Amino acid sequence: MRLAGTAGLVASALTLALAACGGGNTPRSATPAGVAKVTTIDFANVANYAAPTLPAYFDRTVKALDNSPASNAVNDRVATLGRVLFYDLRLSTNNRVSCASCHQQAFGFTDPMRFSNGISTAATTDFHAMRLGNLRYWRPGTTFWNRRAANAEAQASHPLHSLVEMGWGGPVHGFDALIRKMDATDYYPDLFAWAFGSRTITEARVQQALAQFVRSLISSSSRWDTGYARVFSPDAPNRALDVDLPNFSPQENRGRHLFMTGVAQGGAGCSSCHLPPTFALAANARSNGLDAGETRLFKAPSLRNVGLTGPYMHDGRFTTLAQVVDFYDHRVQAGPALDDRLRQGREPRRLNLGAADRAALVAFLMTLSDRTLTTDARFGNPFRR
Length: 385
Fold this sequence. Notes:
Layout: H1 2-20, H2 33-38, H3 60-63, H4 76-87, H5 99-102, H6 152-161, H7 175-183, H8 188-196, H9 203-215, H10 223-231, H11 250-260, E1 274-275, E2 280-281, H12 321-330, E3 343-344, E4 347-348, H13 355-366
Antiparallel strand pairs: 1-2, 3-4
Helix pairs in contact: 4-8, 4-9, 6-9, 11-13, 12-13
C-alpha cells in the first residue's frame, strides 16, 4: 500500500507538471497548438529579455536607478507572456484596442495622436500616451504623467479597468469578466502555465507580465550611443559626457554640449533633469512650469526616441521639438511645484539662447532616436496576421 500510494503521488505530480506545460503529452519545449495557431511564440526558442547586452556605460550608476522590484525581476517566459498581453486586441471589451494601440513600437512606444482613442472613437484619454523606452530607470518607479500609480505593476491594470481605454470597469464588465474571456481562449491558459507554472489567470499575474515586458524596453542603440561608446571612460571628468562625439556634426555636438553643460557653465542644463545615458528623469524632478501656478508634480518619460513623433508634454500641446526647446528657453511659468533647476532666484529661468543654439539642441535630441528599439522583433506584435 505504501508503494502504491507513492506511485500515485508521483503519477499525480507528473500529470500536474505536464498540464502546467500545456497538455498531457506536450513536451516542455513544444509550443501548444493553441498558442502556435494565433501567435509566433516558440516555446523552444525563448527571446532574451532578462539579460540584454548593454553598453559599458550602463554600469552600476545606471543599475542603481532600476525600479524593478526583487519580487518581479524580468524572466524571459513571463516577459514573453507580457508581450502577448501588450498586443492582444482581445483584452478590450470589443476586441478593438490593445496596449500597443496607444504605445506604438514604430514611434518609440507612444501615439502620434494628441490623445488616444480606446474602445470607442466617442471618447479619448485625458493625457498623451507616454513613450515607454527606459521606463525602468525612473528610480521612484511611479507611472503616468501625474505619478498616480505606484509602479509599473499597478499601472498595467489602469487601462484595462478604464471605461474609455479597454473597458473592463463598472459592474457589467469587471476584471473577472476579462479573466473569463482569457480563460476561454485556446492560448492563454497554456501561456500562463508556461510562464508561471499553473494555468490560473489572475490580475496580479497580468500585472507582473506586462510590467516585465515594459521594463524590458531598453533603449541603448541610438547615434548618441554609437558615438559615446567611443569616448566613454568611467574615470574621465563627468564620465566624458562633454567630449565631442566623432560621429556627430558640429551642430549636433553644439547641441550635445548645451544639453550636458550646466547653466552656470554656459550650457542649458538639460542633463541635470534628463539623466544620460538613459535620459530618464531625475528622481527628484518636480514640475516644469507649463502653466502658471502649477501645483501638481509631473513626471516625464525618457527622451529616447523623442524625435520620432510629437506631440509633446502631458497634454500634447506642442507639436514640434522646436516648440519644446523654445518653451524651456524663455516660456517657463512660475508656480509652487516648479523645479528649482528651472528657477533663477524666485523667478523662472530664462536661457535666452540664440536661434542657432536652439536649433542645435533640436539636432542633438534627434540623435537619441533608436531604430533598434523601434524594429526589434522581440518587442513587436507576436500575433499572426
